[in-house]
Amino acid sequence: MIEFVGVSKRFGAVSALDGVSLHFEAGRITALIGASGSGKSTLLRLINRLLEPDAGRILLAGRDVAAGPAEALRRRIGYVIQSVGLFPHWTVARNIAAVPRLLGWPAARIDARVDELLALLGLDPALLRQRYPHQLSGGQQQRVGVARALAAQPEVLLMDEPFGAADPLTRQSLQTELLRLQRTLGSTVILVTHDIDEALRVGQQLVLLDHGRVVQTGTPLQLLATPAAPLVSDFLGRATLGQRLLGLRQVAEILRPGEAADGAALRPEQSLQDALALFLTRRTPCLPVADAQGMALGVIRFVDLLAPP
C-alpha cells in the first residue's frame, strides 16, 4: 500500500531519517514508536508531502507521491493531529464537510456522509451537527477531527499523537473507537504514539525507529517475544515485558479442552493478563473457561502461562 524506498531527510546537520525502507500493508493499523527525535513524525509528514524527502521515493498504491500536485495527494489521505485543529467558527457539520465541499460533492451526499460518520463515531448527529467546537468535550472534538479526516473516504489515515492530550479514560475510549472504526472500514492507518501501551493495544504492526533508522518492524508479539536488539526490549520496558506479552495473548491459546474446574469461568477471548490476575486472586493452579452462553470449554493451567508463545 505505502512503500518507503531508501528515504532520507535532513534538517541542517541533523539526520531525521536515514535511508529508510519500509512497507505499510493495506487495511492494517501500523504504530510508529521510538524516542523523541527518532523520526516518527517526520516519516508521517513525508507521506502527505508536508515535508519532501532529500533522497529516496515514497509510493502510494505503487505510484510515487511526488508524481502529482501535493493538494491532490492530500485529498486522498486523512490527517489527524493531537491539537485536533477544528475551525472554531464552523459548526461540527461544516468542519467534517470541509474536504467533500472542496471536491464538489453534492449537498445531499455531504449531509449523508456527515451523519454517517458522526453515528459511526458514537456521536448523535441530531444533537451535535450544529454545535461549535467550543461546545464539545475534548473527546468529542477528537472524534470530530477523525470524522473530518475520513469524510472524503481517504485511502490512508495518518494520525500524529491523536489522543495525547486526552485523559486516560477518554484516551482508552478513543482507542476502542479507532479499533472498531478500522474493523468496520478496513482503513489503512499509520499512527505515531509515545504511549507504548497504546501502540501495543491498537497497532497490528509496529515500527521502532531510533535516530532516523528502523530498528525493528513486526507484530507487537514479535517485538516483545523476539526483540532484534537490546534497544527494543529496553524501549518496550524490560520490567513489564512479561506482563505485556500476556496482555497480547488470549485464554483460547492455552485452553485444555475436556478438563473441568470449579468457579466462575474465564472467556476464551480474554487476555492471559486477565487470567494471571484471576490465578493470583483465587490462588489456584487451574481455572475454568466457558463461552458467552456459559457452556464449559475446558480449563487453563497456571503452568501454561510460563510456556513460550
List keywords for this structure.
309 residues; alpha/beta; six-stranded mixed beta sheet; four-stranded antiparallel beta sheet; 13 helices; globular
Characterization of the model:
Strand 4 and strand 5 (63-64) form a beta hairpin. By secondary structure, the protein is α/β, with parallel strands linked by helices. It has helices at 40-47, 70-74, 92-96, 98-102, 107-120, 125-128, 138-150, 168-185, 196-202, 220-225, 230-236, 241-248, 272-282, and strands spanning 2-11, 14-24, 29-33, 55-60, 63-64, 77-81, 156-160, 188-192, 205-210, 213-218, 286-290, 296-301. It has a six-stranded mixed sheet with strand order 6-7-8-3-9-10, with helices on both faces. The chain contains 13 helices and twelve strands. Helix 12 (241-248) crosses helix 13.
Describe how the helices and strands are arranged.
Layout: E1 2-11, E2 14-24, E3 29-33, H1 40-47, E4 55-60, E5 63-64, H2 70-74, E6 77-81, H3 92-96, H4 98-102, H5 107-120, H6 125-128, H7 138-150, E7 156-160, H8 168-185, E8 188-192, H9 196-202, E9 205-210, E10 213-218, H10 220-225, H11 230-236, H12 241-248, H13 272-282, E11 286-290, E12 296-301
Parallel strand pairs: 3-8, 3-9, 6-7, 7-8
Antiparallel strand pairs: 1-2, 1-4, 4-5, 9-10, 11-12
Helix pairs in contact: 12-13
